[in-house]
Structures are given as structure tokens and as C-alpha cells.
Specification:
The complex is a heterodimer.
Chain A: E1 4-7, E2 10-13, E3 18-25, E4 31-37, E5 44-50, E6 53-57, E7 64-70, E8 73-79, E9 87-94, E10 104-105, E11 109-113
Parallel strand pairs in A: 2-11
Antiparallel strand pairs in A: 1-3, 3-8, 4-5, 4-9, 5-6, 7-8, 9-10, 9-11
Chain B: E1 3-7, E2 10-14, E3 19-26, E4 30-38, E5 45-50, E6 56-59, E7 62-66, E8 70-75, E9 84-92, E10 99-101, E11 105-110
Parallel strand pairs in B: 2-11
Antiparallel strand pairs in B: 1-3, 3-8, 4-5, 4-9, 6-7, 7-8, 9-10, 9-11
The chains are: A mainly beta, B mainly beta.
């Protein structure tokens, strides 16, 4: 299995809703990431987990809450989002150190906040 | 300040018209430079990793090269299916597994 699987593919939520994005990989990668991507912009790093511990938080607002239950799963819990949080949310994984196969990205969750 | 800049922002090509995309970087302690292809609404798809100046890698119609200040992605005889946004990203020493992306080049290949 050489994929990063993200669910759901699309999500529409109200500003008072609570929802979660899920990411799964079975490549034995020990680093996992959340990126946010707005239209026609490059991905922006939000969080990095290394060996299931949060190692980087790029000053992301607390309405985004990451969780890494085990080495294969990564969640992003969403609460009280704003319309400007609408974006493509990408999960990625990598071996502990960047190797020849780089970082593997999932297909993303298209989030719309109404 | 560490920066990654891609040019041009957009590129329109006729099928078969070869061209090059540029990724220039001003970072300290480059550990690797990555090229990705991204289709609309999809996640980036890994193409190449380059580690040291002078290194080259090829895949089908794509060839990536690296110098001490920039990388080029050469597209030879492109086809319409090569239309996509091409992203470069750098991985730096001490960055803690953090990729820094350039702004991307949107490539459109017309038949």
C-alpha cells in the first residue's frame, strides 16, 4: 500500500458545527502532516507529527485540533470554523527523514464553511 | 530569509513545444529539493527528489536538474495530459521535517 487515504473527500459545515477529517497510511511512515491549500496557492503547513507526537504547530488557530491516535492515523478536529477556513486540506506522510520517495500526499478534503 | 520562487507563474504550450520551469531558492542548508505535479482539486503527486548540485533525474517527458541556486524542470515534447500545476519544495537542515513550497507554475498544453 503506497497511498495516503483521506476522508471525506468533500465536507460542507456550518460555523457552529463540529467535524473531523481523517487520514490513514500503511506505509510505515513515522511523520505525518496537515497542510491547508487555498485556490491557486501552494500548500501551507499546519501541523507535523513525528512518531505520534506533535512536533510542529505553525501557529494554527485553536479551532483546528490535530490528533494522532496511532502511527497510521491522523485526525483534524474542526470546531467553530470561519468561512475563510474553506480550503483543500491535505494530509501527507514521510519516512522519518526525507528520502528518495519524498512526501506522499493524499487527495485532500475539500472543505466549505457556510 | 528562506525563499522559494517559481517562474513563470503560468505557461501555455502547444503540444510538442518543449520548455523549462524554474525554481530558485535562497535557503541555508538545503537537504533536498522536491518536484510535485498537482491536478485541480487533487493532492500533489511526487515526481523527483534532488539532493546535490549537478544531479539530474528523468521520468518520461520530464527531466529535473539542480544547481546551487536553482532547479529546472524540463518538459520535452509535452502532451495535453502534462497540463497541471508543478510545485517545487525544499527541505532544509534544522527545519524539522518541514517542506517550504514555491508558488507553483500552472502549465497548459494545447493540442
Amino acid at each position: 500500500d503506497t497511498e495516503v487515504t483521506q476522508t471525506p473527500k468533500h465536507l460542507v459545515m456550518g460555523m457552529t458545527n463540529k467535524k473531523s477529517l481523517k487520514c490513514e497510511q500503511h506505509m510505515g511512515h513515522r511523520a505525518m502532516y496537515w497542510y491547508k491549500q487555498k485556490a491557486k496557492k501552494p500548500p501551507e503547513l499546519m501541523f507535523v507529527y513525528s512518531y505520534e507526537k506533535l512536533s510542529i504547530n505553525e501557529s494554527v488557530p485553536s479551532r483546528f485540533s490535530p490528533e494522532c491516535p496511532n502511527s497510521s492515523l491522523l485526525n483534524l478536529h474542526l470546531h467553530a470554523l470561519q468561512p475563510e477556513d474553506s480550503a483543500l486540506y491535505l494530509c501527507a506522510s514521510s519516512q522519518d527523514l526525507a528520502g528518495n520517495y519524498g512526501y506522499t500526499f493524499g487527495s485532500g478534503t475539500r472543505l466549505t464553511v457556510v | 530569509e528562506d525563499q522559494v520562487t517559481q517562474s513563470p507563474e503560468a505557461l501555455r504550450l502547444q503540444e510538442g513545444e518543449s520548455s523549462s520551469l524554474n525554481c530558485s531558492y535562497t535557503v541555508s542548508g538545503l537537504r533536498g529539493l522536491f518536484w510535485y505535479r498537482q491536478d485541480p482539486g487533487k493532492g500533489p503527486e511526487f515526481l523527483f527528489t534532488l539532493y546535490s548540485a549537478g544531479e539530474e533525474k528523468e521520468k518520461e517527458r520530464l527531466k529535473a536538474t539542480l544547481t546551487k541556486k536553482e532547479s529546472f524542470l524540463h518538459i520535452t515534447a509535452p502532451k495535453p495530459e502534462d497540463s497541471a500545476t508543478y510545485l517545487c519544495a525544499v527541505y532544509m537542515k534544522g527545519a524539522g521535517n518541514k517542506l517550504t513550497f514555491g508558488g507553483g507554475t500552472r502549465v497548459l498544453v494545447k493540442p
